[in-house]
User: Fold ABC transporter ATP-binding protein/permease from Nonomuraea mangrovi.
Amino acid sequence: MTASLDWRHEWLASLTWMATAFIVTLVASAAAVWLLARYTRWGRQFGRLAFPYFDLRRGRRPLLTVLLILALTIFAVRLQVLISYALNDIFTALGKMYAQDFWVSIVRFTVLAAIFVISSLISYLVSQRFIIHWRTWLTDHMITDWLSGHAYHRSQYVTEPVDNPDQRIQEDVQQFVEDSHYLSTGTVDAALRLVSFTAILWGLSGPIPVFGHEVPRAMVVLAYVYVLVASLIAFRIGRPLIRLEFLREGLSASFRYALIRLRDHSENIAFYGGEKMERAALASRFTAVIKNTWIIALRRLKLQGFNDSVTQVAQVFPYVIQAPRFFAGTLMLGDVTQTADAFGQVHNSLSFFRNSYDSFAAYQAGLDRLTALMDANHDSRRLPSPTVADHPGALVIEGLRVWRPDHEPLIDGLTLTMSPGEALLVKGASGSGKTTLLRSLASLWPHAHGTIRRPAGGRTQFLSQQPYLPMGSLRTALAYPEPPDRIADQLAREMLHAVQLGHLECRIDDEAYWSRILSPGEQQRLGFARILLNRPHLAFLDEATSAVDEGLEHALYRLIRERLPECMVVSVGHRSTLNAFHTHHLNLLGAGRWGMSAA
Ligand SMILES: Nc1ncnc2c1ncn2[C@@H]1O[C@H](COP(=O)(O)OP(=O)(O)OP(=O)(O)O)[C@@H](O)[C@H]1O
Assistant:
């Protein structure tokens, strides 16, 4: 028998090896993660995004899955080592013409290969489950962070606003999770293969004379020198890709955003006949995308050309080195083929780091984009805003100062108190700060200071000139921000009739793009129906009847006064017909001055 291993006892040796490898890898990985998170910027960024997911207080499943993936990776490496020996036996038996040994080795190989295929499939399934679970959690985490404290809106006011949060949440999260898995399991797999196959190569390696000196274990030395030099050159060629990848994501997202805006404002653009301008704007964004794509392509061309040449040379390199010893009879045929296999494995493992430079560049760019979004969310929550406290039965404003971002005052020291049933009409020239006053009262405007007490949560409602209509049915639009099932059929229909939208009664559950179908006046009437349904204690109406005629405006305000007599109303409007529905008037006079009068 010409077996290269003691196959009878190999299962015990393999088990011991796997157990040792598991413990060593676990300790080394934990130490590496800790060091990276402590001493590198991207390590810290990774920690911010990943550690909360693995927090044991949330559950043990994520960590246990990682351990399972690690165990499967180690198992796969060990199998590859055994397969390499099984192949050695096959070729050695062939070289020596031992038919029986050959068939025994074929059977051994078949069993090992079958186990390898099954374990690869299991490993793939476990990895996919892990990736999907992590991605679901992280997407939810990012959305929650973005929505909390009005960050999705107030982030426009921070010093460094971020572009395209939608792309960061949708694409970058997915990329981050997939790359984290790929790069970490890839690193473990490459490191273990490197150790295992270097040992094999070591055993098969002999001395080689170089410039009159004998280099011992030359195969190992040459493999390492070869790949390390290649890696260094590849790093130099690939380095600009980090910045270019970052740019690519940003430019593509900005092009996509311009297309979405075109779709969203199609009617206005069509009325203006603005296609030429739109085409030019789209073309200029797309040109930037393409220019960057070309720079990336040329950079990749260099990198790929270099990587391919390195890989091709590596195919024959071990045969050339071992051939003299084979012809001298010191090596079996199986040893030569196993050398080539081990060299390939060492080369591939080392090359993993070189070839994944590209992925790593994109990975770092993704980390930057995700953490920049989290920073912007955080900063926007820290932006100043007036102190708002709950007061269920009044609106009390004390010493409110509002100014523009350029520090021009809009409102200086506004103080007022409103009781249930009272109504205030805010007037003033365009740009005097009427809408900004409402933004300040809703804690959206960061350039304001003072104290506000008002009914909290859903007991205060803001209705703007163009009410927001969410995607979905008319009932969803009516009930917003409450869920649609909150309003009974009868009530919903009655409200539509009340605001003179009875013709939509039969379409109440139709899903449509309602903000495109309904006229601005109909949308404003729907906004009033929403107020009537939600019965707030305080309603802010910002030019909420600007698109309806005076008769309809009268009818809508009368409805509010009749059905919600206790509701405090603060309106912004220009028409004198509104005077009759308000008990107090606030005039914004510009440069921070204001005047208050009773109606
Ligand atoms: N995000 C912003 N950045 C910079 N300036 C802003 C911003 N939002 C509003 N402003 C400025 O603040 C001022 C007040 O704007 P606001 O929308 O409150 O006016 P308004 O009285 O409601 O006007 P109109 O009657 O035309 O609706 C304007 O000069 C406006 O340009």
